[in-house]
Design a protein that fits this description.
With 415 residues, this protein is mainly alpha-helical. Helices cover 62% and strands 0% of the residues. Helix 2 runs parallel beside helix 14, helix 2 crosses helix 15 and helix 5 packs across helix 10. 45% of the residues are buried.
């Protein structure tokens, strides 16, 4: 271990400290949250007569590349974000140069959850043929068993490894509170998927029968409800008395992903590619520098610009989604069906849900020393330690998921 980089200000270790620091969200609704929808069909509407492709088809040639590219990019961001999360939350308690080494990563990967939400909307809301009964059966069977299994796994870790007073009552309470207070922070995503599925029957009808102008109007209301209204209430101590809750939160990303898939060109011209790159770079710099300025003023981490609905993350997320979609179509056209890239991306794309479920366990295992060594974000300078940890966690989680999907007894844990 590199002396001088192992900061533990509260006595807890690594991810346990991160868990303790996570306060429940201040607002609960079915529109907030979300990450990826690994269970949705792959082919969105991209013009009349678009072909539908099922996620379970194994050959890379039968899958669209761009959804898997978004999935892999986003899940890699999630793993990196959680690998550096602990020292990132300790602004003011650790040397500022150490915090900056986490900030440069965090400011970039904070788009990962919006990317997953937009992908889910683009795949779930654009299907021309839809059967409610089949939809409910397939989705519930894919989600409920993993949710139960991993809730028990992480509850057992908290009780028997961290020796926390965590029992059956707490487990049952987590099923009621859902994304508000899950057993482990990252499990909010599974509850989010369930929430989004409940919205699909209504939102799908709206999307398929609304014009682009109507969807643009929805996006404007979403911006007002999610950015403008909270800003006024927080900074001017005014309670905005207009009911805009139906437009608040992740529902905007969800519908926006479908709108992009339906109306945006599959391939962007050079001007649009450059514009997306500039927006991403500008948003990244504004998030990174702005977070430091706000935190320095507060004397502790002010993560307002990290939030998925911040004025910097929203444009970054939209530009990233457009660019990844463009790259996916571009590589599909230039690669043969037997090329390594589409096959590797398709393989990893099928593992993303399992990687998400198990990666937190891999992080706490590395931090615990039970593998014969200790690796955490401050083992070395975080600039090196965080990506090293993320690579190991990603590889181990992918390997575990691939193995469990081939093992009947474990298949329900990582569908």
């Amino acid at each position: 271990m590199c002396g001088g980089y192992n900061f533990n200000v509260s006595g807890e270790t690594g991810y346990e400290l991160y868990l303790i620091q996570q306060a429940p969200p201040t607002r609960v609704d079915t529109n907030r949250m979300a990450q990826q929808d690994p269970l949705a069909p792959v082919a969105p509407i991209s013009g009349a007569g678009a072909r539908q492709v099922d996620l379970n088809e194994s050959a890379a040639s039968t899958r669209l590349l761009w959804p898997d590219l978004v999935r892999v990019y986003a899940i890699a961001g999630v793993v990196l974000l959680h690998s550096e999360a602990v020292p990132n939350t300790q602004f003011g308690s650790i040397p500022v140069e150490i915090w900056w080494q986490t900030n440069i990563y965090h400011a970039f990967v904070c788009t990962c959850i919006p990317l997953f939400v937009m992908l889910s909307g683009s795949l779930l809301l654009t299907q021309p043929h839809w059967e409610p009964g089949r939809f409910a059966r397939r989705r519930l069977l894919k989600l409920l068993p993993p949710l139960l299994i991993w809730t028990l796994v992480y509850a057992a870790w908290r009780r028997y490894v961290w020796h926390q007073d965590f029992g059956l009552e707490d487990i049952l309470r987590s099923f009621v509170t859902g994304a508000e207070q899950p057993v482990f922070p990252h499990l909010w995503f599974v509850y989010t998927i369930l929430s989004l599925y409940l919205l699909v029957p209504v939102l799908r009808i709206y999307f398929l029968h609304s014009s682009l102008d109507s969807q643009f109007y929805f996006a404007v209301l979403w911006i007002v409800a999610s950015i403008v209204k909270p800003f006024i209430e927080q900074h001017y101590d005014l309670q905005v008395g207009y009911y805009l809750d139906p437009f608040y939160g992740y529902i905007g990303y969800f519908l926006l992903g479908a709108t992009i898939s339906r109306y945006a060109p599959q391939r962007l011209n050079n001007g649009w590619v450059l514009a997306c790159a500039v927006i991403i770079a500008a948003g990244y710099l504004a998030t990174m520098i702005g977070t430091y300025v706000l935190s320095a003023q507060a004397g502790k981490l002010d993560d307002a610009l990290y939030h998925h609905l911040s004025p910097t993350v929203i444009p970054m997320s939209i530009a990233s989604f457009l660019l990844l979609r463009h790259l996916g179509y571009l590589w599909s056209e230039r690669s043969s069906e037997r090329s390594l890239l589409p096959r590797a991306v398709a393989t990893l794309g099928r593992l993303t849900f399992g990687i998400y479920l198990v990666h937190a366990l891999m992080i706490v295992l590395l931090e615990s020393g039970r593998l014969g060594f200790v690796l955490n974000p401050t083992t070395f300078p975080p600039l090196l330690s965080a990506p090293l940890m993320a690579v190991i966690v990603f590889a181990a989680s992918a390997a575990f998921t691939a193995l469990s999907q081939r093992t009947p007894a474990l298949r329900w844990a990582t569908p």
